[in-house]
Amino acid sequence: MTAVSAGLVRSDVRDRVAVITIDNPPVNALGAGVPEAISESVERACDDPSADAIVLIGAGTTFIAGADINVFRQLKTREQSLERSQAVHTRLKKLEDASKPLVAAIHGHALGGGLEFAMACHYRVAVASANVGQPEVHLGIIPGAGGTQRLPRLCGPSLALEMCTDGKPVGACRAHEAGIVDAIVDGDLLAGALTFAKARAAAGERRRTRDLQDRIADRESGVAACRAIRATLARTARGARAPFAAVDAIEACLTMDFDAGSRREIELFADCVLSIESKAMRHLFFAEREASRIPDVPKDTPARPITRAAVVGAGTMGGGIAMAYANAGIPVLLKDVDQQALDRGLAVIRRNYESTVSKGRMTPEAMNRTLARITPTTSYEGFADVDIVVEAVFENMDLKKGTFAEIGAVTPSDAILASNTSTLDIDEIAAASGRPAQVIGHHFFSPANVMKLLEIVRGRDTRPEVIASSLKLAKQLGKIGVVVGNCFGFVANRMLAYYMREAYLLLEEGASVSQIDTALTGFGYPVGPFGMQDIAGIDVGWRIRQHLKSAGKTRAEGPQSVVPDRLYEMGRYGQKTGAGWYRYESGSRTRIPDPLVDAVAAEEAANRGVTRRTIPDEEIIARIMTALANEGARVLEEGFAIRAGDIDVVYVNGFGYPRHRGGPMFYADSVGLPEVLARVKEYRQQFGDYWQPAPLLEKLASEGGTFHGDAA
Ligand code: 3HC
Ligand code: NAI
Predict the structure, then answer these.
(1) Looking at residue 710, what is its pLDDT?
(2) What is the pLDDT of residue 457?
(3) Which of 60, 136, 289, 335 is the most exposed place for a label (fewest CB within 10 A)?
(4) Ligand approaching nearest to the C-alpha of 448
């Protein structure tokens, strides 16, 4: 065996096959030096008479997770990007020209540049558990190392379009069926790859992906597939640019030769990588990972393993939370007051799973297995054995305190006691449990089994171990945990009050419900504020307002529109009653604008002495986004969020804030804080003193700073 070592990449020869191992933990990203070392190792192997073939493999748990995302930050000009991409393309063509069969051996992930390197190899073998993908759209870019040119040549345009526009990886077996992977290896990957490589060498076979034409021969249907996906993206990609650029690049693969198509890819990549969209999405990639770093909770803080859970309250949220646990393989007790409430909750859960099965996203067997993890109960039996209880009873302080007193008495002393309250004081709830150090807020978002955010609310006495366990649990549940402080509405709902305040006021001032919603969907939201309330229930907000009124509080300073209360009084709760901000035909969710709502808004405008006017869409976006950023700045300086990125992560994952805008704080940075501050001051003059600039906004704007430092 010959051993050649080169730091991030090492080579040795086994049984006449050169094995090149990439060793750049944690995910073998193609950081500085890695691509160069791979190329050099391949060249050396080609010159080495003791090797007949070459295998490229990753050390650790994965093949290659892609380019090092940090590198894109260094690209400041289009020329820099074009030059860099051209060099990468040249490198991969050279790899593809290797004089000995070159086989990529894939385990874990081959993503982005990782798959592009693999496709520049002559063959690919993988273990069944591996996956391959082009997730670049999630970073606001397109595959930039030939992916849009080689992938369609392997699997045809349809799957290539799907993979490059939705960014979801596909499993190795599907990739094998589609032609991306040549063989699935059972057992040891390296052994299988060596056998495969030796067979290719013995047969004198080498196959350059760029020479393949069969899968792209039917240009007409390929171009039609591009047209069709553009039409779909116009509805689903809402303002994002990268998915369209990916389609353009794939179309170039179908209509041009390899080199011309590659040049087109390089140009499109340059446009994308310098865009705000890409900066925003790269910011979120790192912000979502940074959110789990809590300054006073070190990484090595012990986390309690969660193997058994209980949820109290089987309503909308409790049911969804129980599903989230069951989906993660954690057995969960689900308690409600009586059998009738339980039956109602379980029927909803079952219906949700059945709908997933009917869409082909779950097998009936998996549904039964998952359902079997949820044990309904009307008593506290079994609570002595759980690691965590999540309370999701009605939003009422006395009820929550009573519930915490009970669960404090029936659970192990080190169990985590979590409340899903949206607004109530965690410390007051914690005191009632008798074990405040074990109490924490686990604020899920509706539907709890779907939405990615878990707002983790630390109380005054919450132990670091409980916070660390909550963060680990969030990952286990497939969620992104963000730790926030205990203020009214925490981060998400506290800021939402300002978003809604502006939406209501704009309505009174003359914008229509559908104009406001359409402006926000045009901005990138999946649904506007009124459509969202029709889903969540206008009665829910009404209850919160009643609770606030009785406490003599308001959620957001400024005029309090009574239009939502009037709808509530008319029994218009939203989709569930067939009418809310919109009208709904029976059994349909199509939003039909209702002139009655505009009439109510006009009446209330008159009552408040507001002169109605035509409001441009730009003002709708500017008012709502400025209100969010200004309150976000307060949340930040008061210490209820650890960093601006956490607020962005909360908004993107909890409320569908468009990822390509980076979140409300990132968006403010991209508008420019002096401009945001100027708007606040202008609104103060125009609408009243309830518009007050947050001191942090004033400070950063005057210093030329940003909420995110150099990330924006
Ligand atoms: N570049 C830089 N850092 C990366 C990275 C990458 N491509 N992929 C992961 N990391 C880092 C993460 O930031 C994290 O760092 P931290 O521990 O300091 O926070 C660490 O690696 C581990 O990542 P995760 O916490 O995400 O680990 P998981 O095991 O949960 O997930 C993964 C692994 C599925 C590989 C996930 O990290 C991932 O999806 N990575 C990004 C993949 C990607 O988007 N690749 C395409 C890059 S763009 C490209 O290749 C362009 C090309 O076309 C030219
Ligand atoms: P819900 O009304 O749908 O369900 C509440 C359930 O709790 C009912 O099934 C009720 O029978 C049960 N319950 C009441 N008292 C109980 C007791 N003593 N023991 C056991 N069960 C009891 O309410 P929803 O919407 O699920 O809200 C629950 C909590 O989640 C509230 O604190 C709410 O603020 C919060 N929340 C709600 C969100 C939403 O979108 N609905 C979003 C995030 C949090």
Answers:
(1) 64
(2) 98
(3) 289
(4) 2
For 29-83, the pLDDT digits (tens) are: 999 999 999 999 999 999 999 999 999 999 999 999 999 999 999 999 999 999 9
Atom of ligand 1 at shortest range from CA of 85 = 54
| Known catalytic membership, residue 96 | no
Strand order through the sheet with 123-127:
3-6, 9-14, 17-22, 53-58, 102-106, 123-127, 183-185
Q: What burial class does residue 465 get, using C-beta atoms within 10 Å of its C-beta: 0-12 exposed, 13-18 middle, 19+ buried?
A: middle
Q: How far apart are CA 676 and CA 664, in angstroms?
A: 12
- Is the per-residue pLDDT at 3 higher than 80? no
pTM (2 decimals)?
A: 0.94
Residue 65 C-alpha to ligand 1 middle, in angstroms? 6
Strands 131-133 and 109-111: parallel
Active-site annotation holder among 36, 40, 83, 116: 116
The answer to whether 314 and 334 have CB atoms below 8 angstroms apart is yes
* Residue whose C-alpha is closest to residue 497's, from 561, 576, 419, 570: 561
- pLDDT per residue as tens digits for the range 369-387: 999 999 999 999 999 999 9
The values of phi and psi at residue 152, to 5°, are -60, -30
Question: Which atom of ligand 1 is least distant from the CA of 286?
Answer: 13
* HSE-CB of 635 using CA atoms within 13 angstroms: 36
Record the tokens describing residue 626, joined without a space. 């400025």
Q: How far is the CA of 418 from the centre of ligand 2 (A)?
A: 13
Which residues form ligand 2's pocket by a CB distance below 6 Å? Answer: 312-318, 335-337, 341, 345, 392-395, 399, 403, 420-422, 443-444, 446, 536, 540
Q: Roughly what angle, to the nearest 10 degrees, separates helices 695-703 and 617-637?
A: 100
Widest CA span in the chain? 90
Is the pLDDT reported for residue 618 higher than 90?
yes
Active site residue 83: no
The per-residue pLDDT for 4 is 46
- Residue 4 C-beta-side C-alpha neighbours within 13 Å: 17
pLDDT in tens, 594-613: 999 999 999 999 999 999 99
C-alpha separations of 212 from 112, 258, 643, 690 in Å: 21, 10, 49, 65
